[in-house]
Write the structure tokens for this entry.
Amino acid sequence: MDKLIATGGKPLSGEIRISGAKNAALPLMISSLLTRETVMISNVPHLNDITTTMELLGQMGVGLQVDEKMSIQTDASTLNSAVAPYELVKTMRASILVLGPLVARYGHAEVSLPGGCAIGSRPVNLHLKGLEAMGTDIIFEGGYIKARAKRLKGTRIFMDMISVTGTENLMMAATLAKGTTVIENAAKEPEIVDLAESLNDMGARIEGAGTDQIVIDGVEELGGTAHRVIPDRIEAGTFLLAAMVSGGQIKLRDVRPQHMEAVLGKLSEAGAAVETGEDWISLKSPDGPIRPVGIRTSPYPGFPTDMQAQFVLLNTVADGMSTVVETVFENRFMHIHELRRMGANIELDGNTAVIQGVSRLNGAPVMATDLRASACLILAGLIAEGQTTIDRIYHIDRGYECIDEKLALIGARIKRIPGAYFASRSDEPVS
Ligand code: UD1
């Protein structure tokens, strides 16, 4: 298993191009199951979750072509299996997104039940409840969700909780249902708008994406399309944080500042000089100390839970006390235990972290527990005194394109050590 070794102390400054959004690319690729025609998706990030999605579609019989710029062309006319096996679902929970499209177009699907994960139990009850309301029979057998339906029927669905992939799953299914589906209390994330735009280009009739009520008039069939994935607002936020906490100055290209208002607002509040243009953001860290900022995560347009770990780090090195409240996921504070090992002063009380800023962190061996926690620990390593070894970085490769190479471009001292190196040394644990 690869590890990263980060050496701290250098301001991170320069210019970075932001990749396409993982959380937009995954549903866009999966939406190709809804049509017999070809779908071309460009600006796809080079990530393990994308490879998993290709494997998932490929083993169902979907034809896939990828060019050197990561444009992916799918052809689901050759689909011959509607099964998402445990081996793939367990590595990527978003695999559940195949359920709606498969039931809508093929009338049946078997998808392994995702288990628990490092950031909580993450159930899929809302996905299932919505599909049942549209006329799907669902049973559980051998760890699998087995779903069957004749043509889905449009209906009114109230989401008890705001769910991003839940909204996407039901929106995709509803495009081919008979009649009108209304999703109330829908998620409003930019990735949902991106998916709706692509589906509408394929012939779907979706209105209201980006608001909490989405109305979908079902059509008989969808055609092909070509679509460019929106920029990754979480990758962008992570690089802004890198410059901020290290005392640097950064310019991001290929971004959409309007998707990042909550994060940009908090960075300004912390003392950064932030400027934006149509597709760029620049940030200069404050000359004096970083001001601590209160954070409360919530669904879009609120402060994203996927930026919580990085802002815990910002507050850890800020001048004063702050609280960070995680309201979206249970158990999403694993990075705090590792940060404490580097010298952070953080108390945990349920879903609230009370942080007293410290003047410096010390390098230490740490373990990544989930995708965004990994980003926080890498940045911590890059500002700590001495060396930090970050283990279990397979999490980061799921969601950040070449993060070590991109960080090196802005001056980070970071090295990837292939797993085989450690495996051959008896004093180093492999996992
Ligand atoms: C998506 C994102 C993830 C982000 C999260 C919240 C993708 C591929 N992943 O995950 O990066 O952190 O949104 O912004 O887009 N819930 C239920 N029942 C359900 C579904 C969800 O109780 O059927 C709960 C979850 O446990 C969680 C909350 O709803 O507490 C929000 O989860 P959700 O928005 O569904 O997250 P994901 O779509 O899995």
User: Anything to note?
Assistant: Residues 23, 26, 94, 120, 122-127, 161, 163-166, 305-306, 328-329 surround uridine-diphosphate-N-acetylglucosamine (CB under 6 Å). Residues 186 and 212 are 4 Å apart (CA to CA). The chain has a mean pLDDT of 94. The chain is about 30% helix and 25% strand.
